[in-house]
Amino acid sequence: MTEVLIRPMLAADVPVAEQISDLSFHELDQRTTTRSDPVPERRTAEHSARWISRTHRFLEHDPGGCWVAEDESGVVGFATSFVRGEVWCLATYAVLPGLQGQGIGRRLLDSAQSYAADCPAGMLSASSDPRALRRYWRAGFALHPQMLLRGAVDRAALPRGAGIRAGRPDDLAFMDELVAGLRGGGHGPDHPTLAEMARPLVAETATGWGFAYTDGARLTLLAATDEATATALLWECLGDAGDTYLVPHVTAANQWAIDVAMTAGLELAQSGYLGVRGMAPPAPYVHNGALL
Ligand SMILES: CC(C)(COP(=O)(O)OP(=O)(O)OC[C@H]1O[C@@H](n2cnc3c(N)ncnc32)[C@H](O)[C@@H]1OP(=O)(O)O)[C@@H](O)C(=O)NCCC(=O)NCCS
Q1: Which residue's C-alpha comes closest to atom 5 of ligand 1?
Q2: Per residue in 136-155, is it b (16+ CB within 10 Å) or e — as a string?
Q3: I need a surface site. Which of 56, 60, 95, 170 has the fewest CB within 10 A?
Q4: pLDDT tens, 138-177?
């Protein structure tokens, strides 16, 4: 193996990091997909463009959390992470398939974690790659199975929630305050990235309040003060869904989400792990894979 240097990520590295991410996650999907999963596909051009713009934002706000591994052939791996309030989040992390399992990932994660030195809490959404899980376990993360629910929505089962409206820019402060209570820090500079993927909904119910980002095909994020409000928000997302809907990243702490999505006719499956350190899995909360 040639010598591998770990150095801070630069803006010029982002396109190659995107290619490494696409290649390594596609290879992982091919390796781990079961017969009931959709056939793995390479990223669309739109998804790649969103990945690139999101990573430029991480670099802008959290340059100390973004690292690459480089050998004589160029960049061969990367890790992007950020700090929001008291929580350090690993956004994404990959090493080129042919070079995995040789210690490059350990060095990348150590560098990204040096940015977490002052953070009492940490969060990441892990793939089911045994190498990734071993790394996270070694880094002190407790691993909680994640579930997903997907399929056609049974419209006859749908109650429509009252008190739900489109989110507005003046909701952002409340959203961040709510999420700070749930995971230690609000999404702050990540709202533009969330808004690129989905539209915000806000619930003000008799019991509390909350918000969700949804694009009609999948739930991007959901946070609420209480389960009744979270339930009303998820019903609203399902009511606006197209032919099928995906609710990813559901932990066992969020049985309310399983109750709603099962009632709506979606199918339950297991998918990766939520890794947490210095905190419990947040609830009522459906996290985002990269923005947690
Ligand atoms: C996760 C990933 C970034 C880690 O990078 P890496 O360079 O492979 O990691 P390392 O070699 O430093 O560490 C891998 C660990 O798994 C072990 N390992 C290696 N091959 C393995 C295998 N086939 N099965 C299980 N464990 C394995 C290694 O021994 C090492 O553990 P150790 O430090 O206790 O000895 C890389 O494997 C990857 O890109 N995977 C695909 C994408 C992915 O899942 N990314 C993480 C998303 S959450």
Answers
A1: 105
A2: beebebeeeebbbbbbebee
A3: 170
A4: 999 999 999 999 999 998 888 876 789 999 999 999 999 9
Structure token pair of residue 194: 């969330």
For a pocket test of ligand 1, which of 111, 128, 131, 144 has the largest count of ligand atoms closer than 8 A to its C-beta?
131
Task: Give the atom of ligand 1 at the shortest distance from the alpha carbon of 90.
Answer: 48
Residue-wise pLDDT for 89-105, tens only, equals: 999 999 999 999 999 99
Residue 28 near ligand 1, beta carbon < 6 Å: yes
Q: How far is CA 124 from CA 63, 103, 208, 254, in A?
A: 18, 20, 27, 17
Sequence-distant (≥ 6) Cβ neighbours of residue 224 within 8 angstroms = 178, 203, 208, 209, 210, 211, 230, 233, 284, 285
* C-beta of 126 in contact with ligand 1 (< 6 A): yes
Contacts of 268 by beta carbon, 8 Å cutoff, 6+ apart: 147, 148, 149, 258, 261, 262
For the question of whether the overall pTM of this predicted structure is more than 0.70, the answer is: yes
Structural domains of the chain ordered from first start: 5-119 (3.40.630.30), 149-286 (3.40.630.90)
Q: Which atom of ligand 1 is nearest to the CA of 107?
A: 12
**Ligand 1 midpoint to CA 184 (Å):** 28
The Cα 24–Cα 75 span in angstroms is 13
Q: Is 94's C-beta closer than 6 angstroms to any atom of ligand 1?
A: yes
